[in-house]
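Colleagues,

For the teaching module next term, I've prepared a clean inverse folding example: a structure given as tokens, and then the sequence designed for it. I'd like students to try predicting residues themselves before seeing the answer, so please don't circulate the second half yet.
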């Protein structure tokens, strides 16, 4: 097979994460808007939201499991086939969620099946990011790893934008009753077409040079997780903590704020989704800027600077949201997502650089997904509990603490720009 072009590598690493995160985010939006009413109708609205957010969190528990399973094959068999399998699992799970009858038809089996399919989504996404990051960085020149690693990092912002636009269009075109009855399912069903495109692009790729060399030299491991945990546990744990700020910023701004804004502030669903579309552009802008700077200055300075600003962002959450002003709420959403992009972009190179090639898929993916459990799995749920117990100021403190955790994790991990591992 001919050597893939830089453009093809960039697009292939981007398209898979965009599709998988689109699938993931349409569930996050559905959880904030309608999942509780469809699958937990017997409870009051607050309990419906908590139950929906718990099903949202299930996938984050599955993601490290997916990172281990797919990482095993990615480090033993190859990046290409493993990435295709993770995308296929995610696509099937998403499609079935869109076709799953609600509580009114299946009774208790509806939420049980929903949890199983949500777990399948998490397994698929767990295997996606690590492989996509390696697909980009293992083809990259040493001085452009963060730039190449940026392309899978762009996937989440584009996937989220597509998800938001999907629900925004449905909110405009359908009545509230139509949306709750069947409209929310359409983005799940349409995702099958996107998965087909992603699989086509992925199958046209060759294996990465780094893994091909490791395979030829017989440097792979029979069970990669064993040497990883034995000799590289520290970067796995610190890498997970470094990811906390990215996840917390994102899911606080998108899932919790969407739920709070539409229920407590009385902002129309279509209006709030439009505000999120504006805010996500700031994340998209921050991603290439941060990647470029981290190739120039190093990963550590960029991550520490953006992490410090994220700590300060927690202090403005309450006053901006409590204002109820569309402008001020949009300002907070834009600030949070800009800082998410700034802290997220360098991770495409930063985490893979912590591990040697033979355990890199498993190590980078596991660190990334463990960060999801710590920073995102229960973030909307915890924020909902905090706002009920102490108000929005407590949610802001939660954001600041999460950012501080990542700040100190990066301090302990140090710089990786000159890593020879790749």
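(Answer key — instructors only)
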């Amino acid at each position: 097979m001919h050597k893939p072009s830089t453009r093809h590598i960039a697009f292939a690493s981007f398209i898979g994460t965009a599709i998988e995160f689109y699938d993931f985010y349409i569930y996050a939006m559905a959880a904030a808007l309608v999942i509780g009413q469809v699958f937990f109708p017997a409870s009051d609205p607050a309990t419906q939201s908590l139950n929906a957010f718990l099903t949202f969190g299930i996938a984050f528990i599955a993601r490290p499991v997916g990172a281990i399973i797919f990482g095993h094959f990615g480090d033993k068999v190859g990046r290409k086939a493993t990435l295709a399998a993770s995308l296929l699992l995610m696509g099937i799970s998403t499609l079935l969620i869109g076709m799953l009858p609600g509580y009114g038809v299946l009774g208790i089996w509806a939420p049980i099946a929903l949890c199983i399919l949500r777990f399948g989504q998490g397994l698929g996404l767990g295997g996606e990011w690590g492989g996509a990051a390696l697909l980009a960085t293992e083809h990259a020149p040493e001085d452009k790893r963060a730039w190449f690693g940026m392309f899978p990092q762009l996937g989440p912002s584009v996937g989220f934008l597509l998800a938001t636009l999907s629900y925004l269009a449905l909110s405009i075109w359908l009545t509230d009753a139509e949306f709750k009855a069947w409209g929310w399912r359409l983005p799940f069903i349409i995702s099958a077409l996107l998965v087909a495109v992603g699989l086509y692009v992925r199958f046209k790729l060759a294996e990465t040079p780094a893994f091909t060399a490791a395979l030829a030299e017989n440097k792979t491991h029979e069970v990669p997780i064993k040497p990883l945990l034995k000799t590289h546990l520290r970067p796995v744990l610190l890498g997970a903590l470094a990811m906390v700020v990215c996840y917390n910023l994102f899911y606080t701004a998108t899932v919790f704020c969407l739920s709070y804004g539409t229920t407590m502030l009385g902002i129309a669903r279509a209006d709030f989704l439009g505000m999120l579309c504006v805010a996500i552009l700031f994340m998209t802008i921050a991603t290439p800027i941060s990647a470029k700077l981290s190739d120039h200055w190093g990963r550590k300075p960029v991550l520490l600077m953006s992490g410090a600003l994220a700590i300060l962002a927690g202090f403005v959450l309450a006053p901006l949201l409590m204002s109820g002003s569309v402008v001020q709420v949009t300002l907070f959403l834009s600030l949070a997502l800009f800082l998410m992009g700034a802290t997220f972009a360098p991770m495409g190179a930063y985490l893979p650089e912590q591990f040697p090639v033979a355990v890199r898929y498993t190590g980078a993916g596991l660190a990334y997904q463990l960060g999801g459990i710590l920073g995102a799995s229960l973030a909307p749920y915890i924020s909902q509990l905090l706002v009920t117990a102490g108000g929005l100021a407590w949610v802001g403190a939660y954001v600041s603490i999460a950012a501080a955790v990542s700040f100190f994790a990066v301090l302990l991990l140090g710089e990786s720009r000159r890593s020879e591992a790749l």
